[in-house]
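hi support,

uploading two proteins for the ticket. first:
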Amino acid sequence: MSRKKWTKWSKFTLKQQKQNTKHVIFSICIKFKNITPKIKGPKIKALYIQ
């Protein structure tokens, strides 16, 4: 790999890593949000059925 290609590649990977960390945090948040309704879910469903 030439130096120019290397710097482009490293910048690209850094960008990707930043996006990945955002994505990971986002997915953790979504998982957390999905877990909490599962706990409350049956109670809410019971209310909806009534």
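and the second one:
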Amino acid sequence: MSYQTEAMTTQPQMTVTSYTVSHWSSDVCDCCDDCRICLCGAFIPCILGCKVAQDNGDSCCLPFLPGAMIALRTSIRDRYHINGSVCDDWVIMTCCPFCGLCQMAREQKARG
């Protein structure tokens, strides 16, 4: 029995994806930049959290899970290539969760 083999004449090429690291479009304490988001975050944060999660492609129930808002913030940071770390996300969502939630909502609105 004879087998025919084909010689590979070219090597597979490596694909490189590059992106530019950006920053948040607004600071954490810029809550009054968008009054609707600010009021929603202040008086009905559970609704705003659900909207932010859904706009990120996650379940509406995500904000009700312990620690999930930190993961959501990290996901948004990764999606938009925003500079920062998980430690930064933890500090913001632990120390000022409503401001952090409003910042995420403003970022999604600014980036479409």
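thanks. also noticed: The mean pLDDT is 91.
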